[in-house]
Amino acid sequence: MEKFLETLKCQFHSIVEKYSDSFLPFFAILLGALTAWWVLNMVIKRFEKKYAQKQLKEKDMMIFSLIKQAGHYTILSLVGLGVLKFFDLSMIEKTVYAFIIILICVFANRIAQYIIPILEKNLASKTETHLDDMIFELSKKFIGVIIYTAGILLALDMIGLNIMPFIAGAGVVGIAIGFAAKDTLSNLIAGILLIIDRPFEIGDRIEVWSAPNNSATWGDIIDIGLRATKIQTTDNIVIVIPNNEIMKRDIINYTTITKEIRVRVPIGIAYDADVKKAKEVINNIGLELDWVMRKPSPKVVVKSFGDSAVNLEARVWISDPRKRMDTISHITDRVKDAFQEEGIEIPFPKRDIYIKKSEP
Fold first, then answer.
1. What is the pTM of this model?
2. Pick from 78, 67, 2: which is nearest to 35 by CA?
3. 65 and 121 share a domain?
């Protein structure tokens, strides 16, 4: 131990003797760095005090902290480079450069953590869907990992370590994870595409193709996630559909443009019935409902001629798409009673049977 201390003492004395005539520039560098540090802190402090009187939000005041941190990192980097040049320490030059890369990564992460909430406020808060909110939330969590991983790899490469095995290993791991979770990744990509295309929003009413048998085939969007979308049917059943399946199918959205939709109700009358009178009766029935629009007014057309009936079709515009089934039910129920009162026959298939008796 005494021998080791004696060796360090000798090395220290040799450095002092070597640079004894040049310590003045070295102290000048340190003094300049300390002065710049103090001036920077004073200037930033004055600006903070000035703008604090304007009652800015804490996030807005954070810009001064970022500027101060950038100045501190710059001063440290310049001092480090100056010391390297002064003492001619080429052996640790790469180490200092690697340290500077890490400092840049720290500052870049602080900037990202400052900018992402601003983008989230200006973009995600203006939409009703929670999907873009989740994207920004994940970005805040993983942006630091991405920045520091890239910085560490660059720093290792700077000090001379071979990073290719790390990159190759990460590539193999990434491929393995991709194969193992291809369905999950497919749903995540589909979720991102839903952000871009926006075929529906939370609260929209759409057709549900995967509803259970003998249940409602349409419902309202109640949640849009990165992996799946939740739809609540009119039977109060929640169906969770993977985003990948949604992107493969046609999406029928009743409320994406406007809440006004047209409802068609098929009605048949006998051939000898008064078509004009039947149309008038059906139109009056449609106008009984408050949500049926007056403009455009209900309309009844002759759709086709069937085997035993003239096929009519009532077309009414409604202001609330969620009243579609109520509209169909009301018109169908009322038409039967109204036709009986007006003597309009609702036909049904008939067959005449002739019995021929042959002579023995």
1. 0.50
2. 78
3. yes
